[in-house]
Amino acid sequence: MHGGYQRKRRRPVAEINVVPYIDVMLVLLIIFMATVPIITQGVKVDLPQTAEAESLSEDSKPPLVASVDIDGNYFLDVGDSSDVALSDSELTAMVQAHLQLEPGVPVVVKGDGAVAYEQVVRLMVLLQQAGVPSVGLMTQPQEQK
Predict the structure, then answer these.
(1) pLDDT in tens, 73-90
(2) 84 Cβ contact list (under 8 Å, min separation 6)
(3) How far apart are the C-alpha atoms of 104 and 136, rounded to whole Å?
(4) Report field, pTM of the whole predicted structure over 0.85
(5) What is the DSSP secondary structure assignment for residue 113, as one 8-state letter?
(6) 16-50: per-residue pLDDT in tens?
(7) Nearest CA to 122 among 68, 79, 71?
(8) Is the dihedral of CA 69, 71, 84, 94 positive or negative?
(9) Which residues pair with 74 in a beta bridge?
(10) How far is residue 2's CA from residue 34's CA, in Å, rounded to a whole number?
């Protein structure tokens, strides 16, 4: 005899402990929440929703054309100063002044075909800093062969 003490047999528990998985999920959620604002930085550009390029209507105001040449110089087609290279601060100030005089004027970026993409993006950032809500890109129709 065993002295009156009898052992109970326990069945093994067949449950999965999910607490570590929840911890890992929350850490991943925090990482994604922290990286999304970094990924989505950039210049907002309204792209046309048509197959062909849109042109400005005849009754709209003449557009304000900001240009960048092959050397990275910036120009603004306003009055007599369309052939004078402008610094970043001069361009921003002139665009702000023009938008105060004519708030609904469309703004178009004209860039040389061989200019570095970085220069065009920098021009668009300057226009955004000047308060331009949307920017159009000026193109030339492709010649028929």
Answers:
(1) 888 887 555 677 888 888
(2) 75
(3) 14
(4) no
(5) T
(6) 888 889 999 999 999 988 887 766 554 444 434 44
(7) 68
(8) positive
(9) 68, 86
(10) 64
